[in-house]
Amino acid sequence: MRHLPPRTTHRRILGALATALLCAGGLAAPAAARDAGPRAAPQLDNGLALTPPMGFNNWNSTGCRAEFNESMVKGIADIFVDKGLKAAGYQYVNLDDCWALPQRDANGELVPDPVRFPNGIKAVADYVHSKGLKLGIYTSAGTKTCNSAGFPGGLGHEYSDARQFADWGVDYLKYDNCNNQGVDAVQRYTTMRDALEATGRPIVYSICEWGSNKPWEWAADVGNLWRTTGDISDSWGSMLSIMKQNLPLASAAGPGHWNDPDMLEVGNGGMTDTEYRTHFSMWSVMASPLLIGSDLRKATPETFDIVTNSEVIAVDQDPLGKQGTVLSSEGGRWVVSKEMADGSRTIALFNETGTAQHIATTAQAVGLPKAAAYTQRDLWKHQSFNTAGTVSATVPAHGTVLLRVTADKKWATNPPAVELGLDSGPLVEAGGTVDLTTTVTDLGRTPALQVSAALTGPAGWEVAPASATSKTVLPTGTALTTKWKVTAPAGTAVGAYDFTLSAAYRSPAGVRVKSRLPFQGSVVVPPPAGSSYLGDLPWMSSSNGWGPVERNTSNGESAAGDGKPITLGGTVYAKGIGAHADSSIEYYTGGRCSSVSAQVGVDDEKSAKGTVTFEIWADGKKVAATGVLTTAMPAQPLSADVSGAQVVRLVVTDGGDGNDSDHADWADARLSC
Prior knowledge:
alpha+beta, eight-stranded parallel beta sheet, six-stranded antiparallel beta sheet, 18% helix, globular
């Protein structure tokens, strides 16, 4: 932990350093910095952002395109009101880069682009304020912003820029990190803090230095929120990597000072609705700022349903201000618990893997007192149940079950919680039949009555029970277990197919409850005998941190097919798989294969950055792994015995430092069967 001097002394020291360093670097120190004299001690206790800020940022939806203009921003404010976002708690309509001209005026002041904003920023702020909302703006703690057009940054102009922002009626500043000239981060961000405070206007201060200098260690008395990672992108791998970096920082967060894992991607199209619900759930459990990054002008009803879920938002906005902490994460089965102001706990059961998983904890394990039973509220189903203490669910692939559990005396008014489970998603060859076992388990203190189960599959498939599908009564902790025969029609194409396990039951008070568990089964082909290149074989599923997984080339960039020859340490490989952390690729091996082998490392297409680890999993167990590999290291051999495994999974993680430039090659990857 970096130890800072007392605030008043700290600010005087930094003020002197700022003037000296800026002048030495050829940058004019602002007049206010030269003339202001002693000021009162800082207060970041500034009374702002006592809960995580909620709003919108335009960058992901418009970038620097011409459509980013006054009309668009006013339209977003209208949507906030018309679509219920304002009512749900969203306040800030934030402008990102490209709002200004590339040059300051003769007085050194920022000039709004007269084409984009013909009436200036104040007119936009006035309109947003007329809707009962607030306006945010962007600049960088450098000589220029991050856009290649070279818009002016705030370094050396902090006081005059802050004064302009305040005069325009700005309520929120996002302060980026580009073109920072190597000036110390604490100094740069503290100077703008002081400049904002000197305006006398309450302006939420968002530090966007990408986690490069560990702001969670020093920024609590500098900004209201600070980015903990690099930029998010609209992919499962990117979201997952950022979540994993942000989760360990829970102790740094609290009212007025929040960890910021970047804006929401919900609705941008690169993930499924299940994945977007996970994204929104986990950001809320982490007490993260909720800044919508999708184009609200084109958002679907499903997107609005996710981002306006009042029960999930209440988790994020809980006044206690605790960030959720990780209780377990074994095998990609995460339990994250967040303490709430009313004494309850919100529990995220999050499934990182590509197949449905049973994830469990207990009420006492998350810190609730011992009790006869508890009330358990499902925040996506909007239903309440009673539980005897077990908190568990079978969670769909990439899904999250979000539960709020309370030790109260009203538990008996709710029906018992039940968990729908299965031994695994069916893996079946076309024309073949497989067995599947499902369970309906009573987790409640009260019995479940008249319990029935049903299983449905794709049209044309045969799904038939091979044992009982109902029970008159399920006491606490007991289950209805049903065996099924699942047959795929001959000629069915290889791929994933949707199934649904349904259950119905009655509480002792007569309340009827219906529950559903969607999951996927796969039509697979047996692996060929002998040694085969994995880049030539069909995979069951794949996810990637940047663009798609590529066959027999490097990952390249975000477009499909843009990879280059796989190259590790100057050696070119004709065969292999190009991935990017965080990545997961699943192959059906059907118990017929003996080993997987590859040469692994960070592709030469990234010459400086890149830190990854490689893992091989067999039927949910890690059977081989490397340590952290860097761009500077040669290819490393990695192999594993996968005898008897039905499914083999190749995993790349980010090495614990974010997934920037983590281009990972499974070179010469082979499967022996």
